[in-house]
Design goal:
The structure is a single chain. A six-stranded mixed β-sheet has the order 6-5-4-1-13-14, with helices on one face. It is an alpha/beta fold. The chain contains 19 helices and 28 strands. The protein starts with 17 loop residues before the first helix and ends with a strand. Helix 11 packs across helix 15.
């Protein structure tokens, strides 16, 4: 394949696509004077991460203040009608149903209604499309007038005798047979409750592509498009590993818009916007006789808000969501650092309203950023939209560290948002911590007995703890809204202190929550009640002089630790 052009435009494009049509005229001259009538132009139009966001939202991807608002379904409908032409494919890249007041209240059906109305040709599933469980997903797929691409295992789990989900389809567009492979998002089993995705096993994206590419080639597909709710890094790995892909469309990004120039012979990777703020367009120049791609032009168009009226959409908008309820003192930008600041504030909200001693929230509870200034209830809702169920569990201090790094979570995920404790981390304490960096807690309000811990049900399920606790009466979104509306003003809260953990020793020094006094650092020993830096240093010096402790009782030989203090700490220490 020969990809001669890849262009990214963050502004409003000329409807005549002058650049690309100029390219069509130039390509025949570049390739020996071939007749331009020998070329087809296939247009692929796509959206991603619609989240049923009906109204315009804050654009964080473009530089400059004050922040402008883009998107809204009226503007999206207008723009798609303008750029659509004979020989076009209209696709969606997942996470279309949930994540807004309208989407959540309709269980994702509103987005499918909208996509039916615009005549989408296909869509792939994102992790958030499973929010209502498998049964609700079946309802959405049956309601859709377009194919929803997903792993055929979904039909097995739903006990369907007739297939509803398929991993790919082949469609002829403007004389070219196009194969569209839909990847099943690996994060589906992380973001959702186990009961909602029970039995679903998802392969790595590159394995999915390798499995289905021969199938669409067997159906004479001449152009291959991969549609997946994956990031650009994974997409680049696919095009570098699996030959024969022309285009990979990735999930949207809240804070950037990008496209990747391909290496010779490799496919184009494109990333567009979210919440209906931008529409991606790829024009593919295909030679009729040689049956191959000559050039690919990638464009991204802003969706300007439309003030026109549409009765059906107006009826879909929930009332009472757009009144101003809070003044925001500082912008929460939707990147890693900004989401961390907002997540800590949400954790503090849960801490205050639930009365928990410790709050641990996964990083994925934050969806959108928040601009500075006056904010409506809708904006606050959209920032924390998924109505995650909260549970309160009572745990001894020895088990608290288990809540910090649950099993089945990739170490590369951002660290959870924590209220009520500081953290020991591996690596640079100046950077945002990731799950793989976390070692243990340092509780800010330390005492004897059990601690009330608040976390989401999805997070608790993956800790491996047997304790299930009690469901808190309000979900996370409701707690957040009540907290903010009562405060009337948003002020960032201080984040947890990050302390450097000794490499290699720290992970071993704590097992089942107990501190091994034979290898624990001074910092770790200071976590024990009544043990300050001087006493902790004496413990380290004692084992250096006399060798390892033979028993936990031997710690009473250390100056400053008598029977009374030993009674306080004996249940928290061990020797190995």
């Amino acid at each position: 394949m020969h990809h001669l052009a890849l262009k990214l435009n963050l502004g409003i494009l000329d409807k005549r696509m002058r650049i690309f049509f100029t390219l069509i005229l130039l390509v025949p001259m570049l390739w020996g004077g071939s007749d331009k009538a020998q070329f087809h132009v296939v247009r692929v139009i796509w959206t991603s991460d619609l989240h049923s966001v009906v109204l315009p939202t804050t654009d964080f991807a473009a530089a400059g203040l004050p922040r402008r608002h883009l998107g809204g379904w009226l503007g999206l409908m207008r723009l798609i009608k303008e750029v659509r032409q004979p020989g076009s494919l209209l696709l969606d890249n997942g996470d279309f149903g949930f994540g807004s007041p309208e989407g959540d209240s309709s269980q994702g059906r509103l987005a499918v209604w909208f996509m039916n109305r615009l005549g989408y040709d296909g869509a792939v599933l994102g992790a958030r499309d499973f929010t209502g469980g498998l049964q609700n997903l079946e309802v959405l797929a049956r309601y859709a007038t377009f194919p929803i691409l997903g792993d055929p295992m979904l039909d097995v789990l739903l006990n369907r005798s007739s297939p509803l989900f398929r991993p790919y389809f082949v469609k002829e567009v403007n004389g070219v047979r196009i194969g569209i492979i839909g990847l099943t998002d690996p994060e589906i089993t992380i973001y959702n409750r186990k009961t909602d995705v029970a039995g679903l096993v998802i392969d790595e994206p590159v394995k999915q592509v390798a499995r289905y590419l021969p199938a669409i080639q067997a159906e004479s597909a001449e152009l291959v498009v991969v549609l997946g709710h994956i990031d650009a890094g994974v997409a680049r790995q696919i095009v570098e590993t699996v030959p024969g892909i022309d285009l990979i469309i990735c999930r949207g990004e809240t804070d950037k818009v990008e496209s990747q120039l391909p290496k010779s012979g490799q496919g184009v990777v494109v990333v567009a916007g979210v919440y209906g703020q931008r529409v991606g367009i790829v024009d593919i120049l295909f030679h009729k006789t040689e049956r191959r791609v000559y050039a690919i032009e990638a464009q991204v168009m802003n969706v300007e808000p439309d003030l026109a009226k549409d009765s059906a959409i107006e009826q879909a908008v929930l009332s009472g969501m757009d009144s101003v309820v809070v003044e925001n003192e500082e912008e929460f930008f939707p990147n890693g650092a900004g989401k961390a600041k907002l997540g800590l504030l949400v954790a503090e909200a849960v801490c205050q309203i639930s009365g928990a001693d410790l709050v641990v929230l996964p990083s994925w509870v934050i969806e959108q950023g928040l601009e500075k200034g006056k904010l409506s209830r809708r904006q606050l809702y959209n920032a924390v939209p998924y109505k995650e169920r909260l549970r309160i569990v009572s745990l001894p201090e020895s088990l608290l560290a288990v809540v910090l790094t649950p099993i089945e979570i990739d170490p590369g995920f951002p660290a959870p948002f924590v209220a009520g404790a500081d953290l020991f981390v591996r690596g640079d304490t100046l950077n945002a911590a990731r799950i793989g960096d976390l070692v243990q807690f340092r509780l800010r309000d330390r005492r004897k007995g059990v601690y009330r811990v608040a976390t989401t049900e999805t997070w608790l399920e993956r800790t491996g703890l047997k304790e299930k606790g009690k469901v808190f009466p309000e979900n996370l979104t409701a707690v957040w809204l009540r907290f903010v509306e009562k405060a009337g003003r948003l002020n960032p809260v201080p984040g947890p202190e990050l302390y450097a953990a000794t490499p290699k020793l720290a992970p071993k020094a704590r097992s089942s929550g107990l501190i091994d006094i034979n290898i624990a650092t001074v910092e770790m020993l200071c976590e024990l009640p009544g043990i300050g830096p001087k006493t902790a240093q004496r413990i380290v010096e004692y084992r250096e002089q006399y060798g390892k402790f033979k028993s936990v009782e031997e710690i009473m030989n250390v100056r400053g630790i008598g029977p009374k203090k030993y009674e306080q700490i004996k249940g928290l220490i061990t020797v190995r």
